[in-house]
């Protein structure tokens, strides 16, 4: 079977969807020697050098992670040229024009419909249109939780038997000791609460900081909060002054 993996969400500084796509690619490269793969990357550099076995090929395009022009005009022809049997896009979208390839889209959540005020308008519009098209045209839709599946079925017109829950995997523990990892970040050994993700309203970092304040008041200054991801913005600056009894980095 010839499988196309859309890896346009993979680049340095990528978010959670990019990590999902990147990890899927690496694990398939480790385990599957029977099928052949073609991987569609953006022109931006991946987080690390790509070393893949012979049954994996790479195509590089001047295209964005979110790029309707590519999705609907360039991609259908490319799938035919590559004689793809199954195409998987982890960023919601599938081509409307049908060819030989069966299509699979991962819809991670529908927060842009349930809480539209938390998502930038242009992104909200794109994701909604892409999800509508996926519900109409994708052969299968993956969601990452039963909750996301229920939300999708509630808000969009899609047959339940086409929607499948496949939970996110867990990466193996990194090599090296925890103390080494902490030191590499310029942090002293101690007790930490770690948040990994972007700093944006839909992540509700404000509530995390308020909860940490309560925990720090009870546990004392030995506990620390570390935010790893995007550079802290105004939400952190606003709440930082309210955190007492612990420290925030």
Share in β-strands: 15-25%
User: How many helices in DSSP terms?
Assistant: 8
CATH superfamily of the largest domain: Glycogen Phosphorylase B
Quantity of strands, as a count: 10
Radius of gyration: 21 Å
Strand line-up across the major sheet: 3-2-1-4-5-6-7
Share of helical residues: 25-40%
Identify the CATH class of the largest domain. Answer: Alpha Beta
Mean pLDDT: 87
Secondary-structure content class: alpha/beta
The unreliable regions are 232-247
Number of self-contained structural domains: 2
N- to C-terminal distance? 48 Å
Q: Quick one: overall form?
A: globular
Task: Provide the succession of SSEs.
Answer: EHEEHEEHHEHEHEHEHE
Largest sheet: 7 strands, parallel
Q: Might you state the CATH topology name of the largest domain?
A: Rossmann fold
Q: Please identify, by name, the CATH architecture of the largest domain.
A: 3-Layer(aba) Sandwich
Oligomer: single chain
What report would you give on this structure?
It is a single chain. The chain has helices at 16-31, 68-81, 111-114, 121-137, 146-155, 178-184, 205-219, 234-240, and strands at 2-6, 36-42, 56-61, 86-89, 102-106, 140-143, 163-165, 191-197, 223-229, 247-248. With 249 residues, the chain is an alpha/beta fold. It has 2 domains: 2-165, Rossmann fold (3-Layer(aba) Sandwich), CATH 3.40.50; 178-248, no CATH class. The strands form 2 sheets. Strands 3-2-1-4-5-6-7 form a 7-stranded parallel sheet, with helices on both faces. The termini are far apart.
């Amino acid at each position: 079977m010839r499988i196309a993996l859309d890896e346009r969400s993979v680049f340095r500084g990528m978010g959670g969807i990019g990590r999902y796509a990147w990890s899927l690619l690496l694990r398939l490269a480790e385990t599957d020697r029977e099928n052949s793969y073609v991987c569609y990357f953006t022109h931006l550099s991946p987080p690390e050098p790509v070393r893949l076995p012979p049954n994996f090929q790479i195509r590089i395009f001047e295209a964005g992670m979110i790029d309707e022009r590519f999705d609907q005009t360039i991609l259908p022809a490319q799938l035919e040229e590559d004689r793809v049997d199954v195409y998987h896009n982890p960023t919601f979208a599938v081509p409307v024009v049908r060819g030989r390839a069966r299509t699979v889209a991962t819809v991670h959540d529908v927060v842009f419909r349930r809480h539209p005020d938390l998502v930038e308008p242009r992104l909200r519009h794109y994701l909604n249109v892409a999800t509508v098209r996926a519900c109409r045209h994708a052969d299968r839709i993956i969601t990452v939780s039963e909750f996301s599946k229920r939300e999708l079925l509630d808000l969009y017109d899609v047959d339940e038997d086409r929607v499948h829950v496949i939970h996110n995997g867990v990466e193996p523990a990194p090599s090296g000791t925890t103390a080494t990892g902490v030191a590499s970040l310029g942090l002293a050994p101690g007790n930490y609460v770690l948040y990994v993700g972007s700093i944006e309203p839909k992540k509700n970092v404000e509530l995390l900081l308020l909860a940490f304040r309560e925990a720090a008041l009870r546990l004392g200054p030995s506990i620390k909060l570390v935010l790893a991801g995007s550079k802290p913005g105004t939400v952190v600056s606003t709440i930082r002054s309210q955190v007492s009894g612990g420290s925030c980095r």
